[in-house]
Amino acid sequence: SQELEQSPQSLIVQEGKNLTINCTSSKTLYGLYWYKQKYGEGLIFLMMLQKGGEEKSHEKITAKLDEKKQQSSLHITASQPSHAGIYLCGADPQGGSEKLVFGKGTKLTVNP
Amino acid sequence: DAMVIQNPRYQVTQFGKPVTLSCSQTLNHNVMYWYQQKSSQAPKLLFHYYDKDFNNEADTPDNFQSRRPNTSFCFLDIRSPGLGDAAMYLCATSRWEGNQPQHFGDGTRLSIL
User: Fold this and answer.
1) Mutate which of A98, A99, A101, A104 to test chain B, going by most B C-beta atoms within 10 A?
2) What is the spatial distance between Cα B90 and Cα B68, in angstroms, rounded to a whole number?
3) Is B52 left (phi over 0), alpha (psi -120 to 50) or beta?
4) Average pLDDT, integer, range A67-80
5) Looking at the partner chain, which of B4, B48, B106 has a beta carbon nearest the beta carbon of A99?
6) Segment B90-96 mean pLDDT
7) pLDDT of A32-53, one tens digit each?
8) What are phi and psi for residue A39, nearest 5 degrees?
9) Which chain A residues are within 8 Å of B6, Cβ to Cβ?
10) Would you give the end-to-end CA distance of chain B in angstroms?
11) How high is the pLDDT of residue B1?
C-alpha cells in the first residue's frame, strides 16, 4: 500500500521567513493533494498536482511535484501567522481512484 | 455558500452507548467519505459511498456502520463505542470524475466517558 511521509513533523518559523514542507511517497503519485488543517477543524483544500514537474501557486504558497512523481514540496514565501496550521499531503493510491491516502501532517507555527 | 456540514461539532457519549454522527452537503457530490483522525495521525478512511454504493475499508471495525438515505446526507453510526474510538470524525465529499479534490466538513470530535 502507498505510504506518504512528511517532513519535517513540525516547524517553527519567525513571521516573514520562507519555509518548505516535503511529502515523499513510496510509490508513484498519480494525484497529489495538499490540504491545510487548523487545530480541531476540517481540512481545507489548497492545491492538486498531477503531472511530473508541475508547479502551482496560490497567493504565497507554491507546490511542486517532481519529475519522477514521488515527491512533492510546499513552499511558503514570507510566512504570516495566518499560515499556521497542519499541512497534509494526500495521494490517489491507484490512479483514477476516488480514495486518498494521507500523510501524518506537518505542524507549522509562525511566531509574530 | 455550498459546503459540507457536520453535526454536532462535539459529541460526548458513554462507553458502549450507541452514537450517530451526521453529515450533510450542498455540493451535490455523488461521493461521500467518512474518516477517523486521532491526535497527530493521518486521517484514516473508514468507508465511502459512490451514490448509494457502499464501500467499506477492509480494516474498518464492524462497530462502525454508515447510512446514506439520499445524496445530501450521510450518517456514521458507532454501535458500541469503546475508549479507542475517541477521535475526530471527518466527512468529505467529491465528484466522481477522477482526480477531484475532496471537500471536508469541520469534523465532529467524539469523546467517550
Assistant:
1) A98
2) 15
3) alpha
4) 94
5) B48
6) 93
7) 999 999 988 899 999 999 888 9
8) -55, 130
9) 42
10) 36
11) 64
